Amino acid sequence: MYRILVCEDEKAIADALAIYLENEGYEVVKAENGIEALEVVKKEEIHLILMDIMMPKMDGIKATMKIREEKNIPIIILSAKGEDYDKVLGLNVGADDYVTKPFNPLELIARVKSQLRRYTMLGCIEEKSSNRIQTGGLEMDLDTHQVWVDGEEKKLTPVEYGILSFLAENAGRVYSIHQIYEAVWKEPSYNAENTVSVHIRRIREKIEINAKEPKYVKVVWGVGYKVEKI
């Protein structure tokens, strides 16, 4: 059974989230602020986190940054409607996705399931294999989901890996933001622009020597992105 941490200081919202998730068969653990969330993550096995932004003691942005220092657990930001800046900031510091409050229960569950699928695929593979692709100094193992640049392993989140592997497997071909979103998220590309571009920026920061002059993940203005075939 998957265990989901709901980090939300408003009891009514936390209780509603717990009901939706438990009805889908998930186990729910609650935290009222970022400090409590960090303690839960240290003590228990958590498979996904729903993280509110505005909380006392430690907000969701700082908590996400702390969690990302050690773990790649999928994190979905809970953002009040209209807080586009907070959504982008959350993605920049390591969140994988966001749900806008007031949330649609069907959308929430769909996003939770989508993130858990990617996380499970990443975590269930234990054996090394030779199923690798390479372009220049960028090398990826499609079975173990490992990434190296010039021999140095880079730690990517499940979503970052999904985007990079999709582009790398089709190196040289340009894909629009909507094509990338639908290929990785496996759902229609509503409001895809910010989400994809922020993840691309994070990928560049991890694998490029100079993120402003990328060698591997290139933008084709007015069209989309590609991984350069070297």
Order of helices and strands: EHEHEHEHEHEEEEHHHEE
The description of the largest β-sheet is: 5 strands, parallel
CATH level 1 name of the largest domain: Alpha Beta
CATH topology of the largest domain: Rossmann fold
In CATH terms, the superfamily of the largest domain is Response regulator
Strand content: 15-25%
Distance between the termini: 43 Å
Number of domains: 2
User: How many strand elements?
Assistant: 11
Rg is 18 Å
The backbone outline, from C-alpha atoms, is globular
Give me the number of helical elements: 8
Helix content: 40-55%
What's the arrangement of strands in the largest beta sheet? 2-1-3-4-5
Mean pLDDT: 86
Low-confidence sequence ranges = 124-129
Could you give a short description of this structure?
The protein contains 8 helices and 11 strands.
